[in-house]
Amino acid sequence: MSLFAGVYPQKNILNEGEKQEKILLSLAQTLYAEKEYMQVIPILNDFADLYPESHFLIRAMEILAVTYEKVQMFDKALATYEKLYQISGLTGNGLDYYYNQARILYIMGDEKKSNKIYNDIINLSPDSHIARKAKINQDLSTLFQ
C-alpha cells in the first residue's frame, strides 16, 4: 500500500452509476467498431432512458446519430442531431450538430431546409470552419440543380 494512500484523492474515480454508464457506452462503442449497428441502437436508446443526466449522454447521442446514418434511418439521425443541437446551442459542437441536420435534410431531399440551415450557420459564425463547410455544400448543391 502506498504511503500516501488516502491522503491525496485519486482523480477520475467513478461512482458505481458512472461505472455502469461507462460499461454500457463502451459496449456500444465496441459493437459500433465491429459494425454491429443494429445492436448499438437499442443499447444507446436504453442508455439515454436510464441515464438522462449522465455526463456521457452527449457522446452516446453522437454515436447514436452516426449509427442511424450508417443504417440509413435518416429521420432518426435528424431527430438525434436536433436534440444534440438543443442541448449544445451555439457552441462549436452545437454548430456541428446543426450542420449535420442540414446534411441529413439534403440527403432526405429537403434542399430548401438544408440551405436555410447552411445560411444560418454562415450568418451565425461566418469565420468558422463549419461555415466554410456549409458554404461549400451550398455551392455544390447549386451545381447539381
Task: Describe what this molecule looks like in 3D.
With 145 residues, this protein is mainly alpha-helical. The chain folds into two domains: 11-71; 74-145. It is 73% helix and 0% strand. Helix 2 runs antiparallel to helix 3 (57-70) and helix 6 (111-124) runs antiparallel to helix 7 (129-143). It starts with 15 loop residues before the first helix and ends with a helix. Mean pLDDT is 88; it is low at 1-10.
In short:
The protein is mainly alpha-helical and 145 residues long.
Please specify the SSE layout and strand pairing.
Elements: H1 16-33, H2 37-50, H3 57-70, H4 74-88, H5 92-107, H6 111-124, H7 129-143
What structural class results from the helix and strand content? mainly alpha
Helix proportion:
over 70%
**What is the total tally of β strands?**
0
What are the segments in which pLDDT stays under 50 over at least 5 consecutive residues? 1-10
Rg is 19 Å
What pattern of helices and strands is seen along the backbone? HHHHHHH
Query: Mean of the pLDDT scores?
Result: 88
Identify the overall geometry: globular
Indicate how many domains the architecture comprises. Answer: 2
| Percent strand | under 5%
Note the total helix count: 7
Distance between the termini: 70 Å
User: So what's the oligomer here?
Assistant: single chain
> How many strands, what sense, and barrel or not for the largest sheet?
none
